[in-house]
Automatic annotation (TrEMBL):
Amino acid composition bias (Basic residues), ranges on this chain: 88-97
Name the record gives this protein: XRE family transcriptional regulator
Cellular component per GO, a single term: cytosol
Source taxon at top rank: Bacteria
Length: 97
């Protein structure tokens, strides 16, 4: 994965974690939705100014865009998938008929 792909992947990951659409991030950052889409796909080169605007909109440090993404299906992901923090029970409800 090249640097554009890494930055794009992380922008998309952080945006989705915050449940923000590209349209919302576009409004918050001042970038067009098409530009964000291209950047997330690794087709656009973002300037530092643009990355700073996006970082501010996502409330993260700009360095978060450069971290190496975890490998798909990593042991940590598999082991913690669906885990409940210790001391807490998961409430299961059934739909009413």
């Amino acid at each position: 994965m090249d640097i554009r792909g890494r930055v794009g992947f992380n922008v998309q990951r952080l945006r989705r974690e915050r449940e923000i659409s590209q349209e919302e991030l576009s409004f918050l950052s001042g970038c067009t939705r098409a530009y964000l889409s291209g950047m997330e796909a690794g087709r656009r080169n973002a300037t530092l100014i643009t990355l700073a605007k996006i970082a501010k909109a996502l409330d993260v440090d700009v360095t978060e865009f450069f971290v190496k993404p975890p490998k798909r299906g990593s042991a940590v992901k598999r082991r913690t998938a669906g885990a409940v923090p210790s001391g807490r029970a998961r409430k299961v409800t059934r739909p009413r008929k």
